[in-house]
Amino acid sequence: MGAVRERPHGLKRALGRQTEQAANADANADATAPIMDGPAEDHTWVTVEGEQAFVLRQELAPSGWALVTVTPVEGIFASRVLGIAITLLITIIAIIYIMTRERTEHDTVQMDRRLELEELARDLDKKASTDPLTGLANRLKFDELLSREIEQSRRFQTPLALILFDIDHFKQVNDTYGHTVGDEVLIELSHFVAARVRSTDLVARWGGEEFAVLAPHAEARAAARFAKILREGIAQILFPVVGRVTCSFGVAEFARGDDAESLIERADGALYQAKMNGRNRVEVAPPHNLGAGVGSAA
């Protein structure tokens, strides 16, 4: 096609060699040699004025005409090079896409795995610091926060109070109604207390039927008033099966020279005194450096 386009005079010549009959019929025509050295058949290689070319022929029925495309070798080579380049480009794009997708999927999997591990870690931390029956903080969590609050109180000279309380005659509840009923009492009482403390306070199950409330920024007098409110409220609860129960409370305020152990001992001593004084009452321990006396808040 390029050979003809670049040589306009070739349009007056035959495209290919004619049959003998056709040549005789056109004896008076221009005797100039044809453009191609062979017939214009489909998918054949021919020589066009000394240059190799590839022929594509398509019959245009019913006109009897045919569309003949002649492509020089240079054109075929350029087309193939372009095709190879396009193929390579598509291949590179496909590889980049696959690698990017795999990387994205890998990152997604890693992110999901990381989130699962973080959730598992939070769950394990919660289980390690939570009492499984009541949902309150356990003794381990309480001890950790108590040490931290004592350090804060020492550093900033702020008050800190500790309340210990337990259920009066709780062994009789378990012995009479069974541990399942006793557990229900512990659960309902825990919910009652947890719903009434401040957001800055910590309620923990100290052990068995004994509980602790850690009250930062609260003096002994304020903690005793709150303990009295809890005592009166608990006494009004009508527990299933059991009916009513009462609690005894011991209150101690952190003082200079105290550590976690001594603060707990003083609160526990006040709780013991409440038991000795008839139960269902609140007793307040004085600072350990003021003597062994215990004050009553009833």
Return the domain count: 2
Order of helices and strands: HHEEEHHEHHEEHEHEE
Strand order of the largest sheet: 5-6-4-7-8-9
Low-pLDDT windows of residues: 1-12, 25-31
Secondary-structure-derived class: alpha+beta
- Rg estimate, integer Å: 50 Å
| CATH homologous superfamily assignment of the largest domain | Reverse transcriptase/Diguanylate cyclase domain
| Helical segment count | 8
Terminal-residue CA separation: 115 Å
Using the 3D structure, state the CATH architecture of the largest domain.
2-Layer Sandwich
- CATH-assigned fold name of the largest domain: Alpha-Beta Plaits
Largest sheet: 6 strands, mixed
- Tell me how many strands there are: 9
CATH class of the largest domain: Alpha Beta
Mean pLDDT: 82
